[in-house]
Write a structure and sequence with these properties.
mainly alpha; Growth Hormone, Chain: A; 18 helices; 0% strand
Length: 416
Amino acid sequence: MSSIKQEDLSRGQTMLILGGAAIMLSLAMGIRQSWGLFQPHLIRDMGITAADFSLAIALQNIVWGVTQPFVGMFADRYGTRLIALGGTIIYAAGLLISLYAHSALAFTLGAGLCLGIAMSCTASQIAMNVTARTASAAQRSIALGSVSALGSLGIAFVSPMAQSLITSSGWEVAIVAFIGLMVVMLPAAYFAGGSDRIAIETTGIAQSAGEAVREALGHPGYMILATAFFVCGLQLTFLTTHLPTYLALCGMDPTVGSTALAVIGFFNVIGSYLFGWLGGRYSKRFLLGGIYVLRSLFITTYFLLPPSPTSTLIFAAAMGTLWLGVVPLVTGLVVHLFGLRYLATISGIAFFSHQLGSFLGAWGGGLMYSMFGSYELAWKSAVAIGIIAGLAQMTMNTRPSPRMERERASGFQPAS
């Protein structure tokens, strides 16, 4: 495949690549974040328990995290198109297995293992890698925010669609509709793979993938970034997995849960774009830390107040504004510290930490509820570590790696 410089891309080529990444991300995340709507119905019809459902979603998150660095290495070496197309096919297979599952084991295989692998191939890390390589250095932060924002639209229409189909026709029909969305996701993944043609400038400072990983793990700022990212996964997955069940316990109509997820998606569009724009002008580490602390404060306020449809939707709007705003900031920091060459690999390792948090948020939340009959301990734990992580994130060392400093000192301006 012939290569092309980033600055030689036409506007149409750029929009096609970024549009494909945004649609792929939108559908992958929209379907994944709507799984909480199925929990009561699967418990009733499939005979699984809340702990079984939580374990499957937790496994999905940990598989996503474990496979993400290896998927990133493959994408850095061979390109993203093959990864994205393969991931879409695996996504469809996972949905099909979940549809016909008649046991906790089969459901875990589909919704847990297959969807976990699929998410690592089609969701935020691959989409952000495509965006960072396609956008110019001057426009990179706003482009990351824009693609993340457009990718957030998925939950805004997928969640209400799923709830409507569940209510009118049953949860099986909703999953069939999800499988149908894969037909749209396939061409989006193909066009996003157009970023494979874009050449990345090199300076003659050779570096292998292993050397890039060691460089990242030896950087104290990166280690804080990756550790704080754990909390992001814990808080968000706890909410998407357990908020619908919490609302049902409070006696609210099921549509409140789906509407709340849609509101999160809508305000996530605003927040992702906003933080992408802010990240190009202000300190990314302080913005990231502020997001973690604000989330904790919003969670505290919501769970301390008497629950109502109004308070739930206000909470959803506040959390949605802070939802995926972390993605352009984290990606921007990784590019600043280490450059573009092994972005998918290095950001994939940080995302593994994120998914450890997601595993704990999904499974731990269900386990605490099963043990104590309440989500109180779960949300308090999420708040406490969120504040600690936010304050730690604000102290992050943002000095680029010595290799990047040498490159910049030599007058070379890499695409970072």
